[in-house]
Amino acid sequence: MILLENIDKVYRTRSIETLALQDVSIEVRKGEFLSIMGPSGSGKSTLLNIMGLLDAPTSGDISIDQLPVKNYKDKELAKLRNQKIGFVFQSYHLINDLTVIDNVEIPLLYRNMPGKERRKLATEALEIVGLSARMNLFPNQLSGGQAQRVAIARAIVGKPEIILADEPTGNLDSAMGNEILDILAELHGKNNTTIVMVTHDERMAERSERVIHFFDGCQVN
Question: Which of 4, 61, 105, 192 places its Cα 20 to 30 Å from the Cα of 218?
Fold first, then answer.
């Protein structure tokens, strides 16, 4: 489902060059639940952004669902992201001026979908994460765990084949973190969704099928 081959990522300024990723090759199989672990600054989030086509590697090749994307233009990459990938971020990235259900609908706005169908899919996504009763609230009226559930609903509303989760439990206590992992595990089990999760928590990583460790931009196993 995701194939990275010989990926390097270098950030350059006038005075310094930082090697964020070095010669990374990873194959994520369709329907796999993979965790990526490593200390802060090891390149985990950079790797996830490249997997999600939010950032481009300095060198190396990426394929998503057997589609090489090296020569894709920005508009083509955006369309592929919208169709194939759902994102869950540690800090939720909800829009405070929009209600819960309006936040969840956002990815569907780029699909030229009728409003009635968007609302139906958003309602279904909120039911999956157990928040249908709070769809008309605003993000600042939610707890951290509820906000993360909304973020997951937004990620799954377009029925993506891949979910990329960057520290999805990082801002939550252990009990709420386990609830979020329960939702991801259920999506993986019921829908065969491919999930790649960045985490620093070994207990959370143990719930995935495979763990890859990173250190100083390099894969160490």
Answer: 192
